[in-house]
Amino acid sequence: MNKKLKWGILGCASIAKRSVIPGVHLSELNEVTAIASRDLDKAKKTAEELHIPTAYGSYEALLEDPSIDVVYIPLPNHLHKEWTIRAAQAGKHILCEKPLALTEAEAAEMAEAAERAGVYLSEAFMYRYHPRYDAIKDLMDSGAIGELRGIRSAFTFNSSGNTGNVRFRKDWGGGSIYDVGCYPINAARLLLGKEPDAVTVNALFSPDHGDVDMMASGLIEFGDVSLSFDCGMWAASRNPLEVLGTEGIIEVPSAFVTPSPGSGNFFISTGGERKEIHVQDINAYTEQADHLARAIHDQTPLRFDTQDAIHNMKVIDACLLSAREHIRVVL
């Protein structure tokens, strides 16, 4: 068996503490051995809580640690580019939180830095490592729901009362499209296996929340088929996905969050019958980490490479432009 890769975490973000670090702890091929914060006491406290051996008081110190193989970056969006490039220059493989960057151009620059350094760079869309998405794609390709007519999806939650939230900083890459709208966009591209032609998005920009898009809804055109989606940080929580065909419907009640056993299951309705499809319960964060580790060990391509992240950022750029300018943007 290959030795476990040693991970270092840049920052003590809630997604790291709540989901990614516990997921890596369950991994067969990885272990978290260091965490860094600009506040050493915060790093030490988090390290103690999550059983991480080493704490650093700066991101630079962690990158200088020769024992670290992989760096996970859950920093605010505007810091992704800087620290991904610095991690690549330090010879570390990288898992960076979504969205990878603030723009398509930034994502391309990050990908180039990783390629130049000979390291892997992966965007942390953990949901797509869950086996249900392969099962959904197989059903679509088999014609189980007939000819495809459209995809609907949403990802919303309500954090509007948390005035100090970094998601409300426009210059930091705040807003619902960056934070959660990226999921339906990514899922439609994954399931359809192609890139869109045009986007049209309407958004609620709130002056009380840094003028970021607190709610957005849009249409993303993939030729004859479209994704209709909405996303928000000022609405009740939900994250469904629905694939509509001429003969049936695939429904995923919790498409991007799987917090409890059985929540990875989904439904297919055909011929007047609705049937639950049972899928193996796995920790998608663990599988995400192990997929990266297998690629590193075997020197094989990532299933979702940096070009995928660049393409996703291109669509996000177009969505934000459409929402701001009230125009249909052709890609």
Number of discrete domains:
2
| SS-based class | alpha/beta
Over all CA atoms, what is the radius of gyration? 20 Å
Rounded average pLDDT: 96
CATH topology group of the largest domain:
Dihydrodipicolinate Reductase, domain 2
Percentage of β-strand residues: 25-35%
The N- and C-terminal alpha carbons lie at a distance of: 45 Å
Biggest sheet character = 10 strands, mixed
Percentage of residues in helical conformation: 25-40%
Low-confidence stretches: none
Quickly count the helices.
9
CATH class of the largest domain, named Alpha Beta
Count the beta strands: 16
Q: Can you say what the CATH homologous superfamily of the largest domain is?
A: Dihydrodipicolinate Reductase, domain 2
Q: Based on CA inertia axes, which overall geometry fits?
A: globular
- Helix-strand string: EHEHEHEHEHEHEHEEEEEEEEHHE
Q: Which architecture name of the largest domain does CATH use? A: 2-Layer Sandwich
